Amino acid sequence: MTKNIMIVGVGGQGSLLASKLLGRLLLDAGFDVKVSEVHGMSQRGGSVVTYVRFGEKVYSPIIDKGEADYIVSFELLEAARYVEYLKPEGKIVVNTQTIDPMPVITGAMEYPENLVEKMQAKGIYVDAMDCLKLANEAGSSKAVNLVLMGKLSKYFDEIPEEKWIEAIKVCVPPKFVELNLKAFELGKNN
Predict the structure, then answer these.
(1) How confident is the model at residue 38 (pLDDT cuts 50, 70, 90)?
(2) Helices 131-138 and 144-153 sit at what angle, rounded to 10 degrees?
(3) Which of 2, 161, 178, 186 is the most buried (most CB within 10 A)?
(4) What is the spatial distance between Cα 49 and Cα 57, in angstroms, rounded to a whole number?
(5) Interhelix angle for 131-138 vs 177-188, to 10°?
(6) pLDDT, tens digit (0-9, with 9 covering 90-100), for 66-107
(7) DSSP state of 186
(8) Among residues 82, 99, 96, which one has the least CA distance to residue 12?
């Protein structure tokens, strides 16, 4: 059976590394994997979506509405924006950080409040935490992606932690491996 992960966020947050890491991890675990290109404004500030699909045989990288087993969101509003892609039994793993989109910056709109509570009120499983705080604790605000991967790893009992660590070592430049491993551990243990 094919599993679907959507990675959503804002350009410049590291979603590309997260999807590359998941692709490597799942390939090494013996799955057929399709990772989509980044869709959206990949420069800093625009909405970005990447699809990761894996299973015995995967034919397309695209995830339609109602098909995502997991939505991994780098930012709160992006989680709410893509919630319709989640399966009824799906899970959202979300960083509680907020980044104002252009309509909020210009004053045309206000950033919605209580997004986690609003999603949970609809019966959606939301695993929310302040990944930015943990990334800073690890040594860099840029490590939010690895904190999120650590949090996501809790839902993949079939993949041992050593496999995640191997994938991190392959995908991350050597001088940042230690910092990223620390971020991963903080995400996994919080």
Answers:
(1) low
(2) 110
(3) 186
(4) 22
(5) 140
(6) 999 999 999 999 999 999 999 999 999 999 998 888 888 899
(7) H
(8) 99
- The contacts of residue 54 (CB under 8 Å, 6+ apart) are 2, 3, 5, 26, 31, 32, 33, 34
Q: Which domain range does residue 175 map to?
A: 3-188
Handedness of CA 70, 74, 75, 76 (dihedral sign): positive
Give me the amino acid identity at 103.
P
Residue carrying the six token digits 């949970």: 120
DSSP state of 107: T
Whole-number pLDDT of residue 127 = 98
Asked whether the beta carbons of 92 and 79 are under 8 A apart, the reply is yes
The answer to whether residue 165 scores a pLDDT higher than 90 is yes
How many folded domains does the chain comprise? Answer: 1
d(CA 1, CA 51): 16
pLDDT by residue (tens digit) across 100-145?
A: 888 888 999 999 999 999 999 999 999 999 999 999 999 999 999 9
- Three-state SS at 121: helix
